[in-house]
Specification:
The protein has helices spanning about 20-30, 45-55, 85-110, 120-125, 135-140, 150-155, 170-180, 200-210, 225-235, 270-285; strands spanning about 5-10, 30-35, 60-70, 75-80, 185-190, 215-220, 240-245. It is of the alpha/beta class. It folds into 2 domains: about 5-85 and about 170-285, Alpha-Beta Barrel (TIM Barrel), CATH 3.20.20; about 95-155, DNA polymerase, domain 1 (Orthogonal Bundle). Strand 3 and strand 4 form a beta hairpin. The termini are far apart. The relative contact order is 0.17.
């Protein structure tokens, strides 16, 4: 059997429950050959994860997941980024300011729904600089308003639900450009959450391809076999590369296992091998 990978994971540097070091150790214990640490709108955990990966023999890809303005929900994954990129550091100030405003809007909407929560309580759960919807979801669980983080998202915090906020600092094209400035390659995450019909999604991908999009997330926890085949077919037609991951958050989303999703997901190492070849060829082409 091919070695397995997970190119979409989160740590305590955004909305996961494991530190970057713990995440890599967990990946090792779970039999993963490689992971990407792709925290939301931040790279604070990348160096720690890479160092632990070198110590334990787990390949760690420096990554990020950037949120972009959208009528629904658009996230862009950046792989092989330089976490010390000046462009990334400069953009983070604006991104963090807008994220703080978005968190306040989540809080206000939850309060209007009758849930007495505060930003300070969400920050206490986060334990770091970034407050995400998952922290509010955990807060709702801790206060007994819902039975699980998944229920909190399904009822209140997912796109289209009453406590969702669409405030974002970057457009999708700006997110792609920022990833490229940081030396990485840009991939559209979890295509089903964009909530476009097939014709609209293809046109969306075509526009992002023209803006420099390198690929799409072709494997994902919530994809049905039909979604997976449809999205990969679109990628082939547009000459886009394929990545894949579970969106692992550990205890914040306990129904998702690293590398396995809800139990039956398998992403072969050959996916990463192809990405590395693509990345190498692209970098060499840029230098010519």
């Amino acid at each position: 059997m091919d070695r397995l990978i997970d190119l979409h994971t989160h740590s305590t540097c955004s909305d996961g429950s494991m530190t970057p070091r713990e995440l890599v150790a967990h990946a090792k214990a779970s039999g993963m050959a490689a992971i990407a640490l792709s925290d939301h709108d931040g790279v604070a955990g990348v160096h720690e994860a890479v160092a632990e990966g070198e110590r334990l023999g787990v390949e760690v890809i420096p990554a990020i997941e950037l949120s972009a303005r959208s009528a629904t929900e658009t996230h862009i994954l950046g792989y092989f980024i330089d976490p010390d990129s000046p462009a990334m550091a400069l953009a983070m100030k604006k991104i963090r300011e807008v994220r703080e405003e978005r968190s306040r809007e989540n809080c206000r909407k939850l309060c209007e729904l009758g849930f007495p929560v505060t930003l300070e309580e969400a920050k206490a759960i986060a334990g770091g600089e970034i407050v995400c919807r998952a922290h509010y979801a955990r807060l709702l669980v801790d206060k007994g308003f819902v039975g699980s983080v998944k229920e909190a998202f399904d009822k209140y915090l997912a796109n289209g639900r009453p406590a969702y906020s669409g405030l974002q600092a970057l457009s999708d094209e700006e997110a792609i450009d920022l990833i490229h400035q940081a030396g990485g390659i840009a991939f559209l995450a979890h295509l089903h959450l964009i909530r476009l019909n097939d014709e609209e999604l293809f046109a969306f991908l075509k526009r992002l391809k023209a803006a420099g999009l390198d690929g799409i997330e072709g494997y994902y926890t919530e994809y049905t076999p039909e979604m997976q085949e449809k999205f990969r077919a679109m990628a082939r037609e547009l000459s886009l590369e394929i990545s894949g991951g579970t969106d692992f958050h550990a205890a914040m989303k306990p129904h998702i296992a690293i590398g396995r999703g809800t139990g039956d997901l398998e992403i072969p190492y050959s996916v990463l091998e192809r990405l590395k070849i693509y990345y190498k060829n692209k970098k060499e082409g840029t230098r010519k």
